[in-house]
Specification:
Largest sheet: 4 strands, antiparallel
Order of helices and strands: HHHHHEEHHHHEHHEHEHHEH
Region (Disordered): 1-31, 252-282
Shape: elongated
Strand content: 5-15%
Strand order of the largest sheet: 4-5-3-6
Biased composition (Low complexity): 9-18, 264-282
Number of strands: 6
Number of domains: 2
Radius of gyration: 29 Å
């Protein structure tokens, strides 16, 4: 066999195995490269969003670990950094070969123009990911509101008491309310990113004190959603279940972004609307304080907020919603003086003494 034949056979073998000086890909395989790269990007981007990864990432996508290894390898090659052949797993190596990468002298390599194209495509995939994940987060937030509003917790805790004068608080409910507020303040009051929300809650409660009509707390979904779903869901549970706020902008209503305006114009409460479309993505909602929340109870709750948390949070309180002094339709408070308050064990002097003893 001639030397020319040897070279030809050697190059064919290199192209088949993804090693040597060939590209390892045919010109007609560009579409396959794009498909593989899309799967790699999705698996890599969604690894930090486990809530959505199962439904959003195709089943034939690589593992997040292999996807990250491929993305990192492409980035290093683009920057001119040598990447040893054995630095990636067998599965990651197979993906790199499908993307046109080859091994030469024990290190991965790829044509510079192709690398630039992959990286530009990665930016496109990342933008699409951020758009998709934003929608998923806001949809999940709206769905959580629906879950709470349709769930048994509201009936158990006497939610919607603002619409009924027959609600009777129990000592257990009063205790749970106080504990829920204390836990929320403790968990989120010391984090610089979430402290403004805690300060905003303090401002909303403080505004209600002394008023003859109920006040509210106007919040954009982004105020909670962009600080993480744990805070967002905890805030919803606290406001709707334990503080028994009435939600003016209800995602069960067929009208979405116009709900607040419709209510202020005197339309019927969204609570009477059947579950329908979910509103999401920057919606603005008003949480109206419970008419049965007394000034005395508010005093006890405000004492749970450390002065440092309130002071620090107030510097960014504009980012944590707007307390509403007047809410339409106007509602009178029915328990301002606390005559219908159930005794809260944690508010008693005996409980305070026992707590101090436990700390000591």
């Amino acid at each position: 066999m001639s030397g020319e034949d040897d070279d030809t056979n050697g190059n064919n073998k290199a192209a088949a195995t993804g090693t040597g000086t060939g590209t390892g890909m045919k010109a007609g395989d560009t579409r396959e490269q794009e498909d593989v790269w899309s799967l790699v990007c999705q698996a890599s981007f969604f690894k930090d969003e486990p809530r959505f990864a199962k439904d959003e990432v195709p089943t034939n996508a690589p593992t997040p670990r292999d996807a990250d290894a491929v993305v990192l390898t492409v980035e290093r090659l683009r920057e001119g950094v040598e990447v040893p052949e054995k630095s990636v797993s067998v599965d990651a190596a197979a993906l790199l070969q499908k993307l046109g990468c080859v091994v030469m002298d024990g290190a991965w390599t790829h044509e510079a123009d192709a690398l630039a194209g992959l990286w530009k495509s990665k930016d496109t995939h990342r933008r699409a990911f951020h758009e998709r994940i934003a929608k998923l987060r806001y949809d999940a937030f709206a769905q959580e509101i629906v879950r709470i509003l349709n769930g048994p917790a509201l009936r158990t805790h006497g939610a919607m008491s603002a619409e009924s004068e027959t609600f009777a608080e129990t000592a257990d409910l009063a205790s749970e309310q106080r504990t829920a507020v204390a836990d929320f303040v403790t968990r989120y009051g010391n984090n610089p990113s979430t402290a403004p929300v805690v300060a905003g809650l303090h401002a909303a409660l403080a505004l209600q004190k002394g008023k003859s009509e109920v006040t509210g707390w106007q919040l954009e979904d982004a105020t909670l959603v962009e600080r993480g779903h744990e805070l967002a869901y905890a805030a919803l549970e606290l406001l709707l279940v334990h503080l028994r706020c009435t939600l003016l902008h209800d995602p069960r209503s067929e009208t979405s972004s116009s709900s607040v305006g419709a209510l202020e114009a005197g339309a019927a409460s969204p609570k009477s609307s059947p579950p329908s479309e979910l509103s999401s993505g920057g919606a603005e909602r008003v949480f109206v304080m419970d008419t049965s929340l007394s000034d005395k109870r508010i005093d006890h709750l405000l004492r749970l907020f450390p002065a440092a948390t309130v002071t620090t949070g107030k510097k960014r309180v504009a980012q944590s919603g707007t307390p509403c002094e007047s809410v339409e339709p106007a509602r009178k408070r029915i328990n301002r003086e606390g005559e219908a308050d159930a005794p809260c064990p944690q508010d008693s002097m005996f409980y305070a003494v026992i707590s101090k003893c436990e700390i000591l």
